[in-house]
Amino acid sequence: MAEVLEEVRRHKTTLIFHNTRAQAEIFFHHLWLANEDSLPIGIHHGSLARAAREKVEAAMVAGELKAIVCTGT
Fold first, then answer.
1. Average model confidence (pLDDT) across the chain
2. Structure confidence at residue 72 as a pLDDT band (50, 70, 90)
3. Are 4 and 59 in contact, with CB atoms under 8 Å apart?
4. Region class of 38: left (phi > 0), else alpha (psi between -120 and 50), else beta
5. CA angle in degrees (0–180, nearest 5) for 1-22-8
6. d(Cα 37, Cα 17) in Å, to the nearest integer?
7. With 80 as the cut, is the pLDDT of residue 64 above it?
8. Which of 28, 39, 48, 58 has a CB 3.0–4.6 Å from the CB of 66, allowing a cystine?
9. Average pLDDT of 7-14?
């Protein structure tokens, strides 16, 4: 997880893709726990409420998130 956070720190925005919602949720949880610098991160997948997805999308466009854990949908 430290390697992923190092890459997140080095870039403006990092998309971290997973094949399934479950994988994305688990990875996001572990990333959240390891995120000692409180970097702004989000999660995005088709099972989230539309409003939640739109909030993450807007934050990404505005440059407010360092990383988004997501699925391909």
1. 95
2. confident
3. no
4. left
5. 30
6. 22
7. yes
8. 39
9. 96
% of the chain surpassing 70 pLDDT: 99
Q: How far is CA 25 from CA 10, 16, 28, 50, 63, in A?
A: 23, 12, 5, 17, 22
Residue type, 26: I
DSSP helix/strand/coil, 68: strand
Q: In angstroms, rounded to a whole number, what is the distance separating the alpha carbons of residues 36 and 45?
A: 24
**Helix and strand element counts for the chain (H, E):** 3, 3
Comparing CA positions, the residue from 30, 29, 23 lying closest to residue 1 is: 30
DSSP string, 17-47: EESSHHHHHHHHHHHHHH-TT---EEEE-TT
Q: Which two tokens stand for residue 54?
A: 């739109």
Stated pTM of the model: 0.91
